[in-house]
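Researcher: Let's walk through a ligand-bound prediction step by step. First, I give you the protein sequence. Second, the SMILES string for adenosine-5'-triphosphate. Third, you return the three-dimensional complex as structure tokens. Ready?
Model: Ready.
Researcher: Here are steps one and two:
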Amino acid sequence: MPACDCPVETAAQTDTEWFIPGAGPTGFGHLLLTGRRQSSMENQRMISLKNLTKVYGQGEESIKVLDNLDIDVAAGEILAVVGPSGAGKSTLAQCINLLERPTSGQIIVNGEDLARLPERKLRVARRRIGTIFQSASLLSRRTAAENIALPLQYLGVTPAETKSRVGELLEREGLSHRATHYPFELSGGQLQRVGIARALALRPAVLLSDEATSGLDPETTRSVVALLRELRDDLDLAVVFITHEMDTVLHVADSAARLHAGRIAEQGSLLELLTDHDSVLGRALQPRLASAQPADGTRAWQVGYDSRSVPADWLQRVSADLGEPVSLLAATIQSINGASTGNATVGLGAPAHLAVAAFARHGLHATPLETGIADLDPKPALHAQEELQWA
Ligand SMILES: Nc1ncnc2c1ncn2[C@@H]1O[C@H](COP(=O)(O)OP(=O)(O)OP(=O)(O)O)[C@@H](O)[C@H]1O
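Model: Step three, the predicted complex:
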């Protein structure tokens, strides 16, 4: 691979591997999105939302917040839901666990249509759904262990069984040494881990995470993300991960959906989104690169590549085609199920129309990064973030 001589880990067949020179804001420099993605997508549908609509208020005052959503999440899959503020992300989470009743549509969790269940059965079904929030929402006068025990105590589980389950969860989350500490004595990451342990106390099949990593520092975000992925694999959880942090989506999710004004604007696996040049979400998911400056007399281009259609030595080929050097200014590469995809910033001096033609001959999608020639591409990649207007 010509982009960089830094080491790239070898991934298993089904692994997703990211190599990112120049770590992003959350500090992930090199990341391995581990496998089972192919197989998990084939897994049992754990959450199935059909024509989900939620309207708040009535008459002229009414506001349609979710508009006919269809979403599926398999067991062992983490679906990230992203979108601007007010898009309806939290309402979606509240509808999935029936804290909010949908106006119409179905919420099928583990084969049961929650919206149709009588109250008593709904209470039982809700136990299969754990929820974690931005602030872990722990009770301040209870210790970590007592907070985790709460759902078990509400259910009337015996003290011996509660103690055993809480001990198991504390150990799994590496919190045994903090069992008797109160929330004010815990770090942000530890608080979030206690929140996750409490959400798992009743052995749910589904985990809803509403901005659970927002506000955490990069190191803590990384550990919470690693924990969620571990839980997904060990417990075969279906996870809906609501966030506005694109960096985190890249590291935690198997698939992503973009919500806009209550509708799904696009959704797909990370591979599909990252290799779709027309995908707003795919472009926003590309790691932000700290690019070197192009040399005098040359201009910078952003190039998207995909090994299924682009030769590995594309850089040399484009250079030979143009009869001039093409310098590499920044690059990422990710290998997903044996296919390498990524993007690079390169510098070259050829006129724009010749460069576009040369890139296209080698199967590359290229966009000039300078102003004044944007007419070559109606959607320059640099604008993806603004286009999404993340909160
Ligand atoms: N209980 C409610 N009654 C009336 N309107 C509501 C209610 N809850 C939310 N809304 C409205 O629904 C819309 C979507 O809100 P929601 O909190 O789901 O968005 P969000 O995408 O999670 O936003 P953010 O990222 O800012 O948290 C907003 O316009 C909000 O004002």
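Researcher: And what stands out?
Model: The mean pLDDT is 80. The first strand starts at residue 16 and ends at 19.
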